[in-house]
Specification:
47% of the residues lie in helices and 15% in strands. It is of the alpha+beta class. The chain starts with a helix and ends in a 17-residue tail after the last strand.
Length: 455
C-alpha cells in the first residue's frame, strides 16, 4: 500500500517542477478515458525524479506514463463515486507547502524565479495536486476496505514460503525508562520573559519586524526559517494554550501576551484569519537548565540507581512514582514505538535505530534485566534536556521470521500483500472497461500491468 501511495505522490508532484523542456514540441502520448497524458507531463516527472535522486526500475518513458495512467483511473472512478477532497485540509497543506518552499528558497520572488511561474499560479497548481493526491488515497482506501486476516491465513502464508525466502527480522528490544527534569531557576524564566518583552517593544515601536526577530532568535528552528510563520491551521491542530491566545488576536500589528507552554515561552503575531483557520507567526524561547541543576538531577538519579540495584523497590514502582516521562509513567516505564512506518508501531518493540540516539547507544551493549547508569538525553516529546535511567526488558536477536515470535510482522506482510492484490485486480478490471490509446513509439514497453494494449 505504501508503495502505491508513494508512486502517486511522485506522479502528483510532477506538475510543480520547472519546465526545463519548454522548447520541446508537446504531443499526446497516452489517452486514458477522456484524459490525455502529454509528453510534457512525462518530461516534467522525469526531471523531478532525477532532481530528487529517485530510482526508476525501467525505462522512464514506459514507467512514468503508466504511473500517470493508473492515477487517472483512480480519479475517474472517484468522480463516479462522488469522492471529494477535504477542502480545509487541502488549503492547510497547500499553505504549509508554500511556506516551506518559500522559506527554503528565501523569498516569494526566488520561488517565482525557480518555478518560472507567478506565486499565485504555483499556489493554485499545488492546491490541485494535493487535492488529487487526497482523492486517490481515499479511492484506494474505499477499494481496499477493511482487510481482516485470521491466524490461519497468516500461518498458511508462512507455511507456503520456502525457507530461503523467509523474511529476516532485525534485532528488537523492549526498554523501560525513568527520567528526571532538572529544575529551571526562576532567574532563567524571568530572563526569558524579559527578552520576549524586549522583542515586543521592538516590534510595536517599529524598530524591528517580528519576522526578522523570529529568524534571528526563535528556537522553533523550522518556523524560524520562515520568519516564525506557521501557515494556516485550525484550532484543533494547535496546543490549547497556544490556540486560545492565537485565535483571540484580531490586530496584525499587535503582539500577544507571553504564552507559557511545555515547550517554552512564546509571543504570537496574527497574520490572517480565514473562517475557522488562522495563520500566525511566533517566537519560541526555551529556558535552559543550568549545569548545576543538571548535576543535581544526575546525583539524585545516581541515588535512585543505587536503590534499584539494592532491590529496595522495583523499576516499575520507581517509574510510576518518580519518572517525569508522562508517556511511560503509567505504563511501568515501558516505551512504546510511535513510529508509524515501523512494523512494530504501537508496540513495545524497537529496532535499535528506532530508539532515540542516546538510548540506542546505551542499550546496545546491555544485557537483559540490566539497568543503566544515569545519562543525559533530549526528551523527544518536549525537546528538554533530562537525566534518564533505562532498563533492558527484553532482546530478540535478528533471525529469520517464525510464527512464534513474529506473528505481528508476518500479519503486516500478508495484509500488505492482500491490499496490493485487491488494487491490482481493480486496475486490471478498470483497464478492460476504459478506452485507452497509446501512441506509436510508446507501446514497446514491459509494463507492470499487461492490459494497456488491447487487441
Amino acid at each position: 500500500m505504501k508503495r502505491f501511495l508513494g508512486v502517486f505522490f511522485l506522479a502528483c508532484c510532477s506538475c510543480c517542477m520547472l519546465m526545463a523542456q519548454k522548447n520541446v514540441v508537446d504531443e499526446i502520448v497516452w489517452v486514458v478515458g477522456d484524459e490525455a497524458i502529454l509528453l510534457s507531463d512525462v518530461e516534467t516527472q522525469r526531471l523531478y525524479m532525477a532532481n530528487e535522486g529517485q530510482y526508476l526500475n525501467g525505462d522512464p518513458y514506459c514507467v512514468i506514463p503508466e504511473q500517470l495512467a493508473i492515477q487517472k483511473l483512480y480519479l475517474h472512478q472517484a468522480k463516479l463515486d462522488s469522492i471529494e477532497a477535504n477542502e480545509s485540509q487541502v488549503i492547510q497543506q497547500t499553505e504549509r507547502w508554500m511556506n516551506y518552499v518559500t522559506g527554503q528558497l528565501g523569498s516569494k520572488e526566488k520561488m517565482e524565479e525557480y518555478f518560472n511561474k507567478k506565486y499565485s499560479q504555483i499556489k493554485e497548481e499545488r492546491k490541485e495536486i494535493i487535492k488529487e493526491q487526497q482523492i486517490v488515497e481515499q479511492m484506494q482506501h474505499k477499494i481496499i476496505g477493511e482487510v481482516k486476516l485470521t491466524p490461519s491465513e497468516v500461518r498458511k502464508y508462512f507455511n507456503q514460503l520456502p525457507q530461503d525466502s523467509l523474511p529476516y527480522i532485525p534485532p528488537t528490544v523492549e526498554v523501560q525508562i525513568i527520567t528526571m527534569e532538572p529544575k529551571i531557576p526562576f532567574e532563567e524564566t524571568d530572563a526569558i520573559k524579559a527578552r520576549l518583552r524586549g522583542f515586543t517593544e521592538q516590534i510595536t515601536s517599529g524598530e524591528m519586524e517580528f519576522s526578522t526577530l523570529a529568524r534571528m532568535y526563535s528556537e522553533d528552528t523550522e518556523s524560524a526559517k520562515k520568519g516564525g510563520e506557521l501557515g494556516f491551521m485550525g484550532k484543533g491542530m494547535l496546543l490549547p494554550e497556544f490556540a486560545n491566545v492565537a485565535f483571540n488576536l484580531n490586530d496584525p500589528k499587535k503582539v500577544s501576551k507571553i504564552v507559557e507552554m511545555e515547550y517554552g515561552f512564546h509571543i504570537i503575531q496574527l497574520i490572517e484569519k480565514r473562517g475557522d483557520r488562522i495563520n500566525c507567526r511566533h517566537i519560541l524561547l526555551k529556558p535552559q537548565a543550568s549545569e548545576k541543576e543538571l548535576e543535581i538531577s544526575t546525583q539524585r538519579m545516581d541515588s535512585l540507581y543505587t536503590d534499584l540495584k539494592a532491590n529496595k523497590f522495583s523499576f516499575e514502582e520507581a517509574a510510576m512514582y518518580v519518572s517525569y516521562d508522562k508517556n511511560t509513567r503509567n505504563n511501568k516505564g515501558i516505551m512504546v514505538n510511535q513510529r508509524p512506518d515501523s512494523p512494530h508501531a504501537s508496540t513495545p518493540k524497537f529496532e535499535l535505530q528506532e530508539l532515540p540516539q542516546e538510548i540506542g547507544k546505551i542499550i546496545y551493549d546491555m544485557k537483559v534485566g540490566e539497568i543503566s547508569r544515569p545519562f543525559r538525553m533530549i526528551n523527544e516529546s518536549n525537546q528538554k534536556e533530562v537525566v534518564a535511567i533505562v532498563k533492558l526488558k527484553s532482546r530478540v536477536e535478528g533471525h529469520k521470521a517464525n510464527m512464534a515470535e513474529d506473528f505481528q510482522v508476518l500479519k503486516s506482510i500478508v495484509e500488505d500483500r492482500k491490499r496490493t492484490e485487491i488494487l491490482n485486480k481493480w486496475i486490471a478490471k478498470k483497464q478492460a472497461e476504459t478506452y485507452i490509446r497509446i501512441s506509436d513509439g510508446w507501446q514497446k514497453c514491459d509494463f507492470k500491468y499487461s492490459g494497456w494494449i488491447k487487441d
